[in-house]
Design a protein that fits this description.
Layout (H helix, E strand, L loop, with lengths): L1 E12 L2 E12 L3 E5 L6 H8 L7 E6 L2 E2 L8 E3 L11 H11 L4 H8 L2 H4 L15 H15 L3 E5 L7 H18 L2 E6 L2 H7 L2 E6 L4 E7 L14 H13 L5
Parallel strand pairs: 3-8, 3-9, 6-7, 7-8
Antiparallel strand pairs: 1-2, 1-4, 4-5, 9-10
Helix pairs in contact: 2-3, 2-5
Length: 248
């Protein structure tokens, strides 16, 4: 079943097309990566899917319903965690519910059980500055989930983390996705990350940005670090490098 679908999304700024005829699909409980060089319009596409921008052409469907230009249906997490430094983790996580009109006490009670699910128990009354980078990202992801529990758009959420922490977060996020039945569309510039995490990869290239290739990763998730050393992994990587014209 297709959870999210975009049909021929086109957007221009000041007379110049940024993205053109973008059609992608995200199935239920699937993780799909958008991979490409900077400037291909990936973030612009996310802004349109989330309803922050309206496309000049095309439509967005969530569970078959047209949500084009409507915000509030899909959660969106940027590269930086953007936690409020003067609020506790508990109140940071509850913020989407409070903005939707829920009382603060009720919002705190609602989010409380999720702290254990997301591995954040004991951090409720702490402030962001007291948490490690990985724990801050967990809190930011939980806040994102509180905004919408159906589809998450993640724009390079792990790029600021060191390699060891990033790999731990990969495994953690895949486990959380499975546990809470979340569908994820993920922007990355990291080819290894895309292959390790994705069910499918859309390559987005050119100016204006277009989807130029779809790659299906058949290896079952979660994939261990040993997968990085296999011929299967290297074949996927060669295919991506060739398609992105990076073999120079």
């Amino acid at each position: 079943m297709h959870k999210l679908t975009t049909r021929e999304i086109t957007k221009e700024f000041e007379g110049q097309e940024i993205i053109k005829d973008i059609s992608i699909e995200l199935k239920e409980n699937e993780l799909v990566c958008l991979l490409g060089v900077s400037g291909a319009g990936k973030t612009t596409l996310f802004n349109i899917i989330s309803g922050l921008l309206t496309p000049d052409k095309g439509q967005i469907f969530l569970d078959g319903e047209d949500i084009t230009g409507q915000s509030g249906h899909i959660s969106y997490m940027l590269q930086k965690d953007l936690l409020f430094p003067f609020k506790t983790i508990e109140d940071n996580v509850a913020m989407p519910l409070i903005l939707k009109g829920m009382k603060k006490k009720e919002a705190r009670e609602y989010v409380a059980p999720y702290f254990q699910t997301f591995g954040l128990e004991g951090t409720e009354k702490k402030y962001p500055a007291k948490l490690s980078g990985g724990m801050r990202q967990r809190a930011a992801l939980l806040r994102t989930y509180m905004f919408s529990s159906q589809v998450a758009l993640l724009d390079e959420p792990f790029s600021a983390l060191d390699t060891i922490t990033k790999r731990a977060m990969h495994q953690w996020y895949l486990g959380i996705m499975e546990q809470i039945k979340l569908s994820t569309l993920f922007i990355t510039h990291d080819i290894d990350e895309a292959i390790l995490l994705s069910d499918r990869i859309y390559l987005m290239t050119g100016k204006p940005g277009r989807i130029t290739k779809e790659i299906v990763i058949t290896k079952q998730r979660p994939r261990t670090d040993e997968f990085l050393l296999t011929e299967e992994f290297l074949q996927y990587k060669r295919e991506i490098i060739e398609a992105l014209n990076l073999n120079v």
